[in-house]
Amino acid sequence: MKELVGRVALGVAGFSFAPRDRSADLATIRAGIAAGTAILDTARAYARVDAPLYGEELAAEAARGTGVIVGTKGGHSRTGESTWDADISARRIRSDVETSLRVFGRERLDLYYLHRVDLAEQPVEEGVSALAELRDEGKVARVGLSNVSVADLERAAAVARVDAVQNHHSAIGRESLDVLAWCEANEVPFFAYSPLRPASAAPSPHLAALADERGVSLQRLYLRALLASSPVLSVVSGATRPETVLDSLAAESEPWDEPLATAYAADLT
Ligand SMILES: NC(=O)c1ccc[n+]([C@@H]2O[C@H](COP(=O)([O-])OP(=O)(O)OC[C@H]3O[C@@H](n4cnc5c(N)ncnc54)[C@H](OP(=O)(O)O)[C@@H]3O)[C@@H](O)[C@H]2O)c1
What we know:
Helices cover about 45% and strands about 15% of the residues. The chain is α/β, with parallel strands linked by helices. The chain has helices at about 15, 20-35, 55-65, 90-105, 125-135, 150-160, 175-185, 205-215, 220-230, 240-250, 260-269, and strands spanning about 10, 40, 70-75, 75-80, 85, 110-115, 145, 165-170, 190-195, 235.
């Protein structure tokens, strides 16, 4: 699983919820891929009422012929303008995977997550066992869990191998430290989603001053700090403009040096 580590994945949620210029959005995602984006992140739920498979279709089109890894998710979908369901029953997960296989035009999906383990009524064991069966059948290469607690992971891992985890985690808010620690202990790749949106608006004056001094964006330093914080962590960036997509990707090559480490540590205290 080392190939999933230490990268900036590009999430397509921000391209998927409101009508936008599809060809401009595809060009933006392709610019990211041309610059080195190796993983796209999408979901069945990234869709509008009038275009219920939009997010997966967009990722499928952008990824076609490129060799980038695509992570997608099921068991959660839009049921109305402002309503969503969460269902990780075996029947639903199998049906969502079959739909995704059709959308991507593939025999096997790279990485498939149970999207909202936290909201589903069914026990995590049911959903993860269903996905593990699909992995055994060759329809899914990697089994992922999203929006999980350590307790969920312990229960899931007791019945099936977990290949990836995706939770909300930002550089300053560090919302999923316990889940990240579990991933480190079990050598499971951890994807930090919404990495620029801390749950509380904590200030980061030291990182902001360093970003000014270096003439780079604060967002790039947040992403760099996250990547440096754990060997199993990747970020899922939600940038939607060519400038921000490329800037966030550049976090991978931003030097992790003593002034940056010191500024980050100062902002955490
Ligand atoms: N598993 C889940 O339940 C779940 C939930 C939420 C999100 N996600 C995944 O995580 C991805 C990202 O989430 P998100 O969009 O909520 O959060 P985000 O990446 O933390 O924030 C995106 C926002 O940050 C801005 N931004 C990104 N890079 C920037 C840069 N270098 N400089 C300045 N601004 C920058 C974007 O602006 P522009 O739009 O102007 O570029 C956008 O407004 C989603 O696309 C999705 O794939 C997963």
